[in-house]
Amino acid sequence: MQFSTIVSSWINDIAGIDEEVYLFLEDYHRITDHEINNAISYFLRYAPTQFHLVVTAASEPTLPLARLRAHNQLVEIDTAALRFDLEETSRFLEHENIGGLDNSAVRLLHAKSEGWPAVLRIIAATLGKQGHDCETYIRGLSGTLRPIGDYIAEMLNGLPQEMVQFMHRISILDRFCAPLCKMVTGVGSSRQLLNAMESSQLLLTPLDEERHWYRYHTLLADYLRLRLDAEFGNEVVKLHRRAYRWYAAQRLWTEAVRHAIAAGDTSEAIAWIEQCAMDLVRKGDLLTVLSWQRQFPAELEQSQVKVGTAVAWGLALAMRFDEALALVDRLACELSVQPTHDRNATDWECQAIRAVVLALRDDSQAALPIAEACVKNATDPWTVNVATNVALFGYWKAGDFSS
Fold this sequence. Notes:
Elements: H1 3-15, E1 21-25, H2 34-46, E2 51-55, H3 65-70, H4 79-82, H5 86-95, H6 103-113, H7 117-130, H8 134-139, H9 146-157, H10 161-169, H11 178-185, H12 190-199, E3 204-206, E4 214-216, H13 218-232, H14 236-249, H15 253-263, H16 266-283, H17 286-295, H18 298-303, H19 305-317, H20 321-335, H21 340-360, H22 364-377, H23 381-398
Parallel strand pairs: 1-2
Antiparallel strand pairs: 3-4
Helix pairs in contact: 1-2, 11-14, 14-15, 15-16, 16-17, 16-19, 17-19, 19-20, 19-21, 20-21, 21-22, 21-23, 22-23
């Protein structure tokens, strides 16, 4: 008997039932026979209105979902909807008798688990059985811990080897898109693999509505990076170099710098820091700039006056006054070998940094004349704007707005 005959018989039988009818199909992703998919699709098209099909699957089933969406006949509950929010995470911990956690510990656990129910269940079981110091365990939580790592390994074991290797190699990336993945891995089918990963519910989080950029779940990224070092360690530097070349071509300087540092290519990193450091300061991203300052020796910092000036701004605005002034003094020595135009522009920028430090130290009287001179002589709009604000602050402190 053909599937169509069986399905038609079911449809006729259901039509004679007055009550709601539900059919549950679990693990639908295991169905690979096209005839079965065609039969279910036919069933959905012609079944009476009191019939409801409930499907669970680890990947998007090959059913006419687009048509069902268009006719408002589909309710979808994906991994994002299944993740716990902060309140649900807190209630789950209470239900599992994991008490004694303050709000900050619960928030940290929720952030690290991203509300992944399976991982929260593993964590609860681990804490309940072994009597861990809960807060210490949560602070050290990562995808490399054995119970969680074992679960992720089992999740990946059923995937094609090509996909798993692809996932390992792109784990060096904080975020990724198909062209970047193709550059890093050399895999021409990167777009198709990303689509397959997303449809397989592999903890891939889209970062935009167009689904151009993605990132991994934090714990999955931890696990994949550990396995990358273990299995493909000789490729890691090459992967970072491919990544920074792609980012640099797109003028995404911050990420290019990160991967250049990871590859150990300091000269490239310094060159690109020069491209973006001052922009980051203007945007208020002082942490990134100052993290770079900690990674490079002073001589590299001084070899690029633009980089040094941006770092000096960052130090001043981060209230690290002594370091900012010391760097400004070192930059003054560097300026002696600069062309006249660049030297003058940078010299006034350094003077503006001094004025900012003095003003933030509540010495507006000393800061005011320096700021006034910068307003009159500096050519960089950022420098003029900051100096103007320092001068206005000085006038306000002195009670004199006549200037």
